[in-house]
TrEMBL record:
Belongs to the 4-toluene sulfonate uptake permease (TSUP) (TC 2.A.102) family. Keywords: Cell membrane, Membrane, Transmembrane, Transmembrane helix, Transport. This is Probable membrane transporter protein. InterPro entries: TM_pro_TauE-like (IPR002781), TSUP (IPR052017). It is a multi-pass membrane protein. It is found in: Cell membrane. The chain crosses the membrane at residues 7-37, 43-61, 73-90, 96-115, 127-151, 163-182, 194-213, 219-237. It comes from the Bacteria. GO terms for cellular component: plasma membrane.
Amino acid sequence: MDITLTLLIIGIFLGFFIQTISGFAGALVALPFLLVVMPLKDAVCYISIFYSISTPIYFYREWKNMNKLLLKKLIITSLIGILIGSFILLYGQPIILKKALGLFIILFVANSLLNSKVYHFGSKTKYLLGLFGGFFSGVFSTGGPLYAIIIKNETSEIKVFRATMFGILGLVSMMRISILAFEGAITTTKLSNSIYVLPFFISALILGKMVYLKLNEQFLKNFILILLFISGLMLLIKN
């Protein structure tokens, strides 16, 4: 087994293990492993393939817990953002935007820890954050933390947060992979390599669900804030 396939397996397994527990951060966990052996565009393609496989599974398991109204509000602007972001992914790499996203996430986490008051976003803010969530999903596959910020502020139950995150990230991934496939970025080599990774990916979904069921709600809320902080830090300091 060559180093590319080994790191692809490790990245996808760890990414989707964390994703299944928390509802997001799969791409942020997987990307550092994948970027060691491949360019950003290829890494995003692989992550998109496995997000697309997991989407029907997550929807089947979590549909009843999803906040459907919030999903509807986010999906239209997310599509616009993905179109812009995917274009930039294929033809450029705006690293400064990635660092700006990291700083925004860190400031949000700091505010959440220091200020106990819950701030509810207005409709215009939700649409704007949905647009940027789609954009960063398209260009870096890292829109999850932005969606997590929106959904965390609109849901009080961890199971609704987690399920709604599965919903929006799944829909975003289906849109993103359609664009990448249309542009010819999803090659037969990537699909062939993905078959080797598939058993490890399925194991990640099963083990992640088992761990999630054993964790209490307060721990998961703290875990989500920690993940957000780490995500922001990684985006801020890594090129």
